Amino acid sequence: MSRSIRPDAVLVQAVIAGALSFAHLHDLAAAAGQSGWKAWAYPVSVDLLLVAAWRRLRGGRDRSSWTWFAIALAASLGANVATAGLLDLHDVPAWLRILVAGWPALAFLGGTLLVHAPVTEPEDPEPELREQSAAPEVEMHRTDATDPAPAAAPELAPAPASTPTVPPALLDHARSIADAHRTATGEQITTEALTARLGLPSPTCQAIAAQLQLI
User: pTM score > 0.85 for this model?
Assistant: First the structure.
């Protein structure tokens, strides 16, 4: 299926502007003493340097491209203005002849630097973006971990010693001994004397003395 060719106004304008600028550069080079093929080589050199600098600018690789772009643009604009009747092409000044004669070396230097300039690597993304793209960390909790040791039970105070049970008959016997001792001596019997008289263990005798209120 054939596709119709439609002229682009921007492209047509670019072709016309390029042809006029090309012709102005040729006329200026010819007026400055560059005859034959050399006069045609000058506009080619200026336009190529302009295009090379523009491509480097679009790539954002080298800031020095602005310098060479400005130099090439100044040469093109200068030729257009000079051939507009402001300069007598039949009597070109010496400084202009020097500029035209020195242009090839300048264009060669600019083209070489543009081609062999080190390429700047693109900057890495910001650390925050890299951290956001990283996988989130997952916290792991073990369920089979040993339980903490139980707290030690508080120590219980030792229970007081239980008071031995005194039979009523033994209590009556001890009371009779205490009464006899009070009648004979006029004084209350001591716990030591009661223990010696009864011949029983000391805790039992102390329990008897407590009940008889001897202590």
Answer: no
